[in-house]
Predict the structure.
Amino acid sequence: MTSIPKLPYFSTEDYAKGVKVSIVNVQAEGKQCTPFEVSRIVIAPNTWTPMDQHEVKECWFISSGNGLLEYDGKEPVSVGAGDVLLYDSQHSHRIYNAGVDDLVVFSLWWSDVKS
């Protein structure tokens, strides 16, 4: 049987009411395999994620569902499956699930290391 490079999830956590986050294990033999971290975020219908702002850069891939993205305190805009969103360091962001099914987002984040 051929093995595939499938990464497991750590346990799923209730990040906020209606928001579940599963961190992907990107380590092998205790060492980081990627220059970034990865998680899956599942947002229940009619739910906002908490506002988030951090030092790292972040990229969201919306896997399924549709919602409203609030970025840097501006008016929310519609986003949906297939959209890719990039957040620079220290820019606030959150998302609302405006659909009837779960909104699923994959998040990658990394430190912007300057050489």
